Amino acid sequence: MSATRARSVQNEITISNPATGERVGSVAVATAADVKAAALRARRAQPAWERLGVRRRRRVLERFHDLLFERQDEIFDTIQRESGKTRREALGELLIVAGTARYYLAHGEEHLAEESHPGASPLITGARVGHRPYGLVGFITPWNYPFILSIGDALPALLAGNAVLVKPSELTPLSAELGRDLLATSGLDADLVQLVHGPGATVGAELVDHVDYLGFTGSTATGRKVAVAAAERLIPCSLELGGKNPMIVLAGAPLEEAVTGLVSGGFYNTGQTCIAVARVYVESRIFDRFAALARRRIEKLKVGWSLDWDMDVGSLVSREHAAKVMRHVEDAVGKGATVLTGGQRRSDLGEAFVAPTLLTDVDESMELCREETFGPVVALYPVRDADEAVARANDSTYGLNASVWTGSARTSRALARRIEAGSVGINSTLLIYSTFDVPMGGVKESGIGRRHGRQGILRFTQAQSIVDSIATGGGYEGVLANITSEARARSLAAAFKLMRRIPGLR
Hints:
Elements: E1 6-9, E2 12-16, E3 23-28, H1 32-52, H2 54-70, H3 72-83, H4 87-112, E4 115-117, E5 125-133, E6 136-140, H5 148-152, H6 154-159, E7 163-167, H7 174-185, E8 193-195, H8 200-208, E9 213-217, H9 220-233, E10 237-240, E11 245-249, H10 255-267, E12 277-283, H11 284-299, H12 319-334, E13 338-341, E14 357-360, H13 367-370, E15 377-383, H14 386-394, E16 401-405, H15 409-416, E17 423-426, E18 447-448, H16 453-458, E19 461-469, H17 476-481, H18 486-499
Parallel strand pairs: 6-7, 6-9, 7-8, 9-10, 11-12, 11-16, 12-15, 14-15, 16-17
Antiparallel strand pairs: 1-2, 2-3, 4-5, 5-19, 10-18, 13-14
Helix pairs in contact: 1-8, 2-4, 3-4, 3-7, 10-11
């Protein structure tokens, strides 16, 4: 926890604006007893919520969706003041939360519907699969998207019939508090969304002990610890962890558009995005032109703090995080990297500002080459051809997101299938986050599980299979009980062999 951003005094955490240092609010630090009591309140409220059924639960999400836009200025101000984001980035958070609500309003009932299956034996057996809520879903969320990750992630869990217990980052808890109030105003029983505040090592660890499912977003190092804690309790978890996301640009690609992708993918949210562009592999014959275009575009970005719509890049979340980003830059430059633009703190704007930075000549000796920087820093690497680009893109312990720019849809799709990442964008870098119909998540050390789409709501449920028979022993055990001779066994084998060739049987 940053001493300048979230100062704990006895039982209270004071929240400050990282861009200005202004005090913007405070929250109470939860004790172990507080976490236990919050979990108990949520559990008591959950059964009635589940019994309502998905159609009646939808009504709360409908009202919440509309309320987001009625209260949008309050949401923007809250997000900005505790995180240092730009106004457009605060709008982006609202749109993602609204889009999540809209998607599950349209498709949640279908995803949660009971499924019918033919069963073990044709005609005399059947099977149904239902999706039951876990009960109490826990979330431990970071500071980079305080509204999306604390409230947006809770929406499918709630629609599935769960209660939720959330520990937001102690740097940015006010967005979650506002989101909870908006849900209550929308008609949700206030006990169904419980927030607890404080350090992850204490409050987060206590939360794990009281939930039935855990969703965690954060660093890979912390994710390992969370996974161990969940495993000790034998509860399922989903982990969205770090990334060192590659972008591939080959000759023939529309360079201006690719530069737009680099700028948005690398510097949106000041680079504090798990799917942000960090490594750009550019075919050698277009490298110099691409680098020059990128440098000019980056230098036009307006950096600063404002509650208006005039800034392109805001502050980092704290001066400590800004120092960590600069350590990566200074380590790289000290070992021979070239700064094309940026490369320094913007102390004239405040302690948490770093200039958008573009580097070349980055090699394996530099921390920035492989470690997640999580700031406004992008490195360019020349490559001979597509094969080298793919090989270097895959040479990472991470595998969260990637993008491909070639000028040919067919070539781009072929390259995308070779990349070891949970999502790959073609002619876009951050598109996956607003594509609600498909799953998003990482491979390798970038995580376990998926958000969005059918998987994004079914992860909060347990499958229950109900099988039935119109006659006693309709399964294989009943059939086998009647096999009392070689002749009957041969007849049974012949019947099973024939079943594969009859349409509709399996």
